[in-house]
Amino acid sequence: MAKTIDLQVNAKNIGDFKKGYPLILKSAIINADVLTKEGSIVRLIDRDRRFIAKGYYGNQNKGIGWVLTRKEEEEIDFDFFESKISAAMDRREEWFENADTNAFRIFNGEGDGIGGLTIDYFDGYYMVSWYSEGIYSMKHHVYSVLEKIVAYKGIYEKKRFDAKGQYIDQNDFVKGQEGDFPIIVRENGMNYAVDLNDGAMTGIFLDQRDVRKAIRDNYSKGKNVLNTFSYTGAFSVAAALGGALKTTSVDVAKRSTAKTIEQFSVNGIDYEQQDIKVMDVFEYFRYAKRHDMKFDLVVLDPPSFARTKKYTFSTAKDYPALLMDAIAITEKNGIIVASTNNASFSMKKFKTFIDEAFVGADAKYKILEESSLPKDFRTNRDFPEFNYLKVVILQKIK
To answer: Taking the chain, what is the end-to-end CA distance rounded to the nearest angstrom?
Structure first.
């Protein structure tokens, strides 16, 4: 068994860990320089060497590891992983019994007790995502647990780390039966094509399930819809199935055209009746303004950070300006779905961005609904910063 490393916690951070804060920040540790190998088990102690918690060392975003247990005698072994993963799957029992949805998250990192690890389910296929070399060093436990407790068609993985924090392109198949991709999964009765062995993405972001349903059920009928940063057109599919007159999907990636056509096709939608643009969204806004184009529903879900030939975009700095562009081409009484997955700011801060944009556009709005992560993306309500998704559906009333 590897030696456990003792990390002394700054006095001001002890209370946070005792209250259940799961992320080990470097600034919270006095002797972080003793850490050398990711995956090492660490004991958090106070200045008098009294036990606080136990976790592992793994660099991920702002943290250097995650707390796994506050029981000093609990071992981080197969039994530990089995208990956490089994409990998480028990919580998702209703999803496994849902005839209309067969793609969802069954393990959500720190929300289910193991930060840096997520597991998604796609109609019998499991996709395990690893967010640090540290948690990846424990993969034998996770795969042994899945081998024991689930009946799977196949298991795939995504290693979402390297020296620069970028996704490593690789063959993602782990074990079982290799999928004949794309496979077609169901979400609230809608069909989506997914490929679990095609780089960092799968074809659909599962955390936006509730938003797609809302667009289909409540906001699309008879509407002219613009879906920006459209990726594979999942929001456009929802809008079309909800009775939209027309959808326009805009994304700078060339492959988005084929992917969007595929998503329309698996739902029996004539993609030739829809508009698919391979174009920088910022340029498209200018194009739409020049041609006096207006939309009844605009979906605005940009990546947290993006760089094109002409623009560098960060939601933390540039969302108000982006939203102003959207406001300018939204009809009076039209709907804007404003969304971000940037975890660096709160919903409260996000709403100040919305206020700033409408003041700058000399327009007014009302909020129709707001949401965050769906139930299968379990989070700890005491630490809302880990509930990264922020969605505000609003109506332009002037």
So the answer is: 66
